[in-house]
């Protein structure tokens, strides 16, 4: 099941406010649904946050395109969140530059597989 989100996407490859954590986040403009991907500097896991639910993954599949981000989660992880296997995030025109999103995703996936770039 795919959850579709549309909103302004923000990205930070090394957020000083969060001890250098890399993260990409969006708040859906219509539903107020929050979604983020993040990774702490010393962590091996990628954190996925859906609204107020947080889960940590060793494997996440993310595809970045010019128009959005597609995130795929394994079956086990979806039960600890909201039950969706995929999150399709469409970029709002006011989203940060695609280069900044790409750079942040590359930091989040450093040393891991699962990132596919179409930009």
Architecture overview:
With 119 residues, the chain is mostly beta strands. The chain has 2 helices and 10 strands; from the N terminus they run E-E-E-E-E-E-E-E-H-E-H-E. It has helices at 75-80, 98-108, and strands at 2-7, 9-15, 21-27, 34-39, 46-50, 53-57, 61-64, 68-72, 86-91, 115-117. The protein has a 5-stranded mixed sheet with strand order 1-9-8-7-10, with helices on one face. The chain has a 5-stranded antiparallel sheet with strand order 2-3-4-5-6. The longest helix has 11 residues, at 98-108. The two termini are 25 Å apart. The relative contact order is 0.25. The mean pLDDT is 90.
List its salient traits.
10 strands, 14% helix, five-stranded antiparallel beta sheet, Transcriptional repressor, mainly beta, 119 residues
| SSE class | mainly beta
The proportion of strand residues reads over 45%
Note the total helix count.
Answer: 2
Number of strands: 10
Query: How confident is the prediction overall: mean pLDDT?
Result: 90
Runs with pLDDT <50, length 5+? none
* Fraction of helical residues: 10-25%
Q: Sheet with the most strands?
A: 5 strands, mixed
Global geometry: globular
* Radius of gyration from the alpha-carbon trace, in angstroms: 13 Å
Question: What distance lies between the first and last C-alpha atoms, to the nearest angstrom?
Answer: 25 Å
Please provide the ordered H/E string of secondary-structure elements: EEEEEEEEHEHE
Sheet with most strands: strand arrangement: 1-9-8-7-10
Organism: Duganella zoogloeoides
Protein name: Transcriptional repressor
